[in-house]
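B., you asked whether I could sanity-check this one before it goes into the benchmark set. Here's the sequence:
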Amino acid sequence: MDPSPRHGAFRHIPFMGVIYVVDEAHKLGFYNGHPDWCNLGQGQPEVGPMEGAPPRYARIDMQPGDHAYGPVGGTDELRDVIAAHYNRLYRQGKASQYTRDNVSVASGGRLMLKRTFAALGAVNLGYQIPDYTAYQDLIDYHSHRFTPVLLPAREEDGFAIPTSDFERAVRTLGLGAFVVSNPCNPTGNVIQGDELATYMRIGRAHDCTLIFDEFYSHFIYDPAGGPAAGPVSAAALVEDVETDRVLLIDGLTKCFRYPGWRLGWAVGPTDMIQMLDRAASAVDGGPSRPVQRAAIDVLEPGRADQETTALRTMFARKRDLMVDGLSAMGIRCARETESTFYTWASLAELPEPLRDGHAFFRAALQEKVMTVPGVFFDVNPGGRRTGPSPFAQWTRFSFGPDYATVEEGLSRLRRVIQAAG
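And here's what the prediction gave me:
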C-alpha cells in the first residue's frame, strides 16, 4: 500500500528549502517582518531604503491599457530597455548586439525557468549539486522529455566544477544542455573571467546549450571581500547573440531588490526566445502590464547603476560580517563567499548534535533564528540517488536581511553553540 498522504486526486508535495523553513518557523509564531525573529534563511535581499541607493518606489500608476492582456513575451518597450541594459553593461564595442527579439519577459525568474524547462527537447541535461532547490521539481516535471545528468561539485574544489571536469562531462556524457545558477545559490561561488570564457568555449565546441541563471549577477565581491567593480554575466563573452546557444535568466528580484514585483526575463538567440514565448502561451499567459512599465524606470541607466553600486557596497559589509562571524564560531566555509548573499558552511566541527543541518536548524529556531539545512540543495530528481545526502552537515546562511538583523542573528547562534558545548 502507498504510505504517502492522500489529498483527493492530488499527489503529496513536500515543502522544500526556504518554504519548509518558513513553515516550521510559523509554527513558533514567525511572520514576515516579525521584530523578534532573525531570518538568516531568507532568499530575498533587504527591500527597504539603503544607504546610497535611489528611493524605493512607493506607487505604480495604472493606465487604461493595463486592464488588457499584454504580449506573452513582454511589451516591446520593456524588451527594448532590457536589451539596451545588456548592451550597455556587457557588449559595448561589440558588433553583435541584443535587440528586443532576444528578450522574453515573465512574472518572475522561477516562471521563466519553468518556461525554459518546458521548452527543452530530448537532450541530456547536465546540472550540478549543490544548486538551487527549485531545479529538482522543474526537472521532475519535464524529465519525460529530457534525461537529467548529474555533475557533482566536490568539497575539495570548493563546490565548483573545474573546467576540465565540465569539458569531460559534456564530451563523454553527450550533454545537449547545462543549467547552473551563476552566481551560485547556495555556495556563493561565481564562474567568471577565464573560467567562464572556457565554459563558453566548451559549449560552443560541443553544441551544448548553456543556461545561466544569473539572478545574483550584481552581488559580486573582490578577493578581499569588498565590493567588486561591477556585475558578472556570460553576456560579455557571447561571440554572436544569434548563434551562441547561451540563455541568460535574470530580473528585478535580487539585484534591484524588488522580489514582490515578480518580474524576470531571459536573454538569448531569437529562435530560442520564440520557443520560450510559445511555451508561455500555455504555461502562464504573460507578465503584468503595469509592473513592466514600472520596470522601465528601474532600469534607467543612472538609477540602475546607483542601485547596484549601493547594493554591492552594503552587501560586501554584510558578507564580511557573516563570514567572519561564522568562522569565529567554528563554522567553516569551503570557499569564502564570492557572490550572492549566502554563505555555504560546514557544521562538522561543532559540538554534537549541532553537526547535523536539521538539528542545527531546530536548535536555532528556539532562539528565533532561521537557517536552511544543506540537504535541500542536494538536487535529486525523482529521488533516484539513495542513502544519506553529502550535504547533511552543511547549511546555507543568508545575509539578505539588514545589517542589524544579521548581527543579532549571529549573536544568537553563538548562544546556541555555547549551550551545546
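One thing to flag: Residues 346 and 394 are 5 Å apart (CA to CA). Otherwise nothing jumped out at me.
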